[in-house]
Amino acid sequence: MASLPFDLVAVDLDGTLADEHNRCAPVDLRAMRVVAERGAFVVIASGRMHAATERFWHEAQLNAPILSYNGAMIKHPRDGFIWFHLTVPAPFADEIVQFCEHEGYHLNYYLNDRLYVKEDTDWSRLYHQRTGSVIELVGSLARFRGQSPTKLILIDSPDTTDCLREHFCERFGDRVNIIKSNDEYLEFMHPSANKARTLQRLAYQLGVPRERVLAIGDGNNDIPMMQWAGYAVAMGNAKPAVKELAHWIAPPIERNGLAAALVHLFKLSDEEVFAS
Question: 3.90.1150.10, 3.40.50.2300, 3.30.1240.10, 3.10.20.30: which CATH number matches 90-189?
């Protein structure tokens, strides 16, 4: 792989590969496949659950494990083997569930790579529209008391999640990783779960040094892995803070910025990628 500019390529999913309607352009998938065929490890690095990410791995015909749940899990679709998994400690998860049920907030509860919600709401429908995730209605989430879920997401208006983030950060401190991956999403994960730490772990396991790692993303939850990687590409539709740290800014997702970045950096031919 010495002839390649990078040996490991970490690609964010939402806003980078998949649009707001959970669609991805064939040209972006082809570009990822060509880079993988040339010998690089191409990794989808997503905030989504693993089960909602696998289809993109198959469509792009990739060769490396998936980094999911914002870094809380590494799992290989080829054999289902879990390389790495972090969960939210049960006492904190139970408290978040109790708070949301008492105050009437919508909560996504991820356990054993399945997504549970109390009931069907506008927020659950919005989430399904964006991700295609299979959502199971189970009534009260208190039934999972004592369990350690991979992740929880409180979904509400941007202003509400901003306020609640302050509340929970004050309550939990650094004992829970609390991020806003989307304006409406307030995510709760294990304190060591983020894309950077898990990408670093994966690179080590694959024998790839930091300077040979490329990260491509658009959201605030991509910032840690883009700061850690040897080279960072921001999508044209990326948050301002993401663009500020990028080495190169690609066109937006609507103009196939992912494919453009891979063509530019890996010197791919137009015939390989853009031919129909």
Answer: 3.30.1240.10
Q: Which fold has domain 8-85+193-273?
A: Rossmann fold (3.40.50)
Q: Report d(CA 267, CA 270) in Å as an integer.
A: 9
Provide the strand spans (E) within 112-246. Answer: 114-117, 135-137, 151-155, 177-182, 185-189, 213-217, 231-234
**What span, in angstroms and rounded, lies between the C-alpha atoms of 179 and 72?**
13
Taking a C-beta distance cutoff of 8 angstroms, is the pair 139, 97 a contact? no
**CA distance linking residue 72 with residue 151, whole number of Å:** 8
| Identity at 218, one-letter amino acid code | D
What digits encode the pLDDT tens for the residues 59-72?
Answer: 999 989 999 999 99
pLDDT tens-digit profile of 86-122?
Answer: 999 999 999 999 999 999 999 999 999 999 999 999 9
